[in-house]
Design goal:
Layout: H1 11-41, E1 52-53, E2 56-57, H2 64-83, H3 85-113, H4 118-146, H5 152-156, H6 158-177, H7 184-199, H8 208-213, H9 217-228, H10 239-245, H11 252-259, H12 269-274, H13 279-294, H14 297-311, H15 319-330, H16 333-341, H17 343-366, H18 370-388, H19 391-399, H20 405-435, H21 444-463
Antiparallel strand pairs: 1-2
């Protein structure tokens, strides 16, 4: 049985899939964790009767600027984690990289949860960011390499779904655990999940594609048998054969080049930038990742509380959770549509909805139509969830040849983290600059996002033939 002839996983294969997705879940978990804990963590909500609990302070006083630094350490760690992911994945394998991500998450969460001052908070947040940066690079690759060919696209969407579930879980936990005595449990739960992931890792198989590139044919066949069932003939996880089945960069030249990759040694990032053959796959992933962040998803989610709370003031605490639930449900359609509709078509539909939503949000804010802006924010999140959210992760292992997939993933995700950080930093100053102090002109920034997204999508569409 080959990846092409296998229709689905064995039960063991699905368990391995869930194990791999834990790293994406943790990425989403920590993306949202501090948003829910900010008030109790920074002593804005304090328990004056119990300043200490089990030998630790119930809160850690800090200014908004200091809290922003602590929060930003996650992005900084994520950048360096993604930048080094190719080295870790190629040296220790996909499974080894997952184990390292679990160790870093467990250690970082524990340090943060046991902190009594700002210094350990910064260290813990940075370690968790390192783990997230590494994890978000390896998860799409690992899933693609263990998946039967017939469900590769469907399975790739699960990376985004796991991220959204992680965000939703921490937002839900915030309602019960965001208290002076219990906020540390949010971190300890994350640490416990990663410790469990590490402990069961000996029972998880390595990626067959990685084993093939290392020449470990017997181990590769054993992994395939456990993931897909019986082996009828030689595995098609051989990079050359696998890529001949799925050349998604439609240029015949690209396909020919990729057929010759065989067991070439893994490409380093400097070699990646110097290679003319790999330029198109690299630019395709860069354009996809830039479009994802240029869409303004994180800025919109940040600003949504302020907008929707004006429309629904009595339900303000539930606004973020409601938006995340919408995001969660809208991540399911691409699981079923990705192979029927196609990657490129889903992204185009997603971008069309996002552009229309941006323009409507801008008009609603400039016209003081809060309800219209609220609806448009919801439609934007829906549009992002079924295309711009999952597709960039899905196509990484599809457009990149096996010997370069780790390096291309590292560069693409590093830029994703960087643009996320820059957009988050610039959003409010840019909004205020464009509004020029007039609250009725705050919608102008969304017109700018729409223009930037349109341009980046045009670039992506020229590179990616689907």
């Amino acid at each position: 049985m080959t990846s092409e002839s296998a229709h689905t996983f064995t039960k063991y294969g699905w368990l391995v899939c869930l194990w791999v997705l834990t790293v994406s879940f943790q990425y989403g978990y920590h993306t949202s964790a501090l948003n829910q804990l900010q008030a109790v963590l920074t002593c804005k909500i304090a328990d004056t009767t119990t300043p200490m609990y089990y030998g630790l302070p119930t809160c850690i006083p800090m200014s908004d600027a200091t809290f922003s630094v602590v929060t930003a350490m996650y992005t900084l760690g994520g950048f360096f984690g993604s930048l080094s992911a190719n080295i870790v994945m190629d040296r220790y394998g996909r499974k080894g990289a997952s184990r390292l991500s679990a160790v870093l998450t467990a250690a970082g969460s524990a340090v943060f949860g046991l902190s009594s001052s700002v210094g350990p908070l910064i260290l813990g947040r940075f370690l968790v960011g390192l783990a997230a940066g590494l994890g978000i690079c390896l998860c799409p690759i690992y899933l693609s390499e263990i998946a039967p060919a017939k469900i590769k696209g469907n399975l790739g969407v699960l990376t985004q779904l796991a991220i959204v579930i992680g965000i939703m879980v921490t937002q839900g936990m915030g309602f019960g655990l965001a208290t002076p005595r219990q906020w540390r449990l949010v971190l300890f739960i994350s640490s416990g999940i990663s410790i469990f992931q590490y402990l069961i890792s000996p029972f998880v198989v390595e990626s067959p594609s990685y084993l093939n590139r290392k020449g470990l044919v017997d181990q590769e066949k054993l992994a395939i048998r456990r993931l897909w069932g019986e082996i009828d003939r030689v595995s098609s996880t051989d990079p050359a054969e696998r890529d001949s089945e799925e050349p998604l960069l439609s240029d015949s030249d690209s396909a020919t080049e990729r057929l010759s990759t065989g067991r070439q040694p893994a490409v380093t990032i400097p070699q990646l930038f110097a290679s003319t053959e790999l330029r198109r796959p690299l630019l395709t992933i860069i354009a996809a990742m830039m479009s994802q962040q240029i869409s303004g998803i994180n800025a919109v989610l940040y600003y949504s509380n302020d907008i929707l709370s004006k429309s629904l003031p009595e339900l303000a605490p539930y606004v973020s959770l409601a938006i995340t639930i919408v995001n969660f449900f809208m991540t399911f359609p691409p699981i079923f549509l990705i192979e029927r509709v196609g990657r490129k078509q889903l992204i185009q539909l997603s971008v069309a909805g996002a552009l229309l939503s941006h323009l409507t949000v801008g008009y609603g804010l400039n016209s003081d139509l809060v309800t219209l802006s609220s609806i448009a924010i919801t439609t934007f999140v829906m549009s992002f969830a079924f295309g711009l959210g999952p597709i960039p992760f899905v196509i990484i292992p599809e457009v990149a040849p096996p010997h370069a997939v780790s390096a291309i993933s590292s560069v693409g995700l590093s830029l994703n983290w960087s643009s996320n950080f820059v957009i988050g930093l610039m959003f409010l100053p840019l909004r205020n600059f464009l509004a020029n102090g007039d609250p009725m002109k705050e919608g102008r920034v969304f017109y700018l996002f729409a223009a930037a997204l349109f341009c980046s999508t045009l670039w992506f569409s020229k590179l990616y033939r689907g």
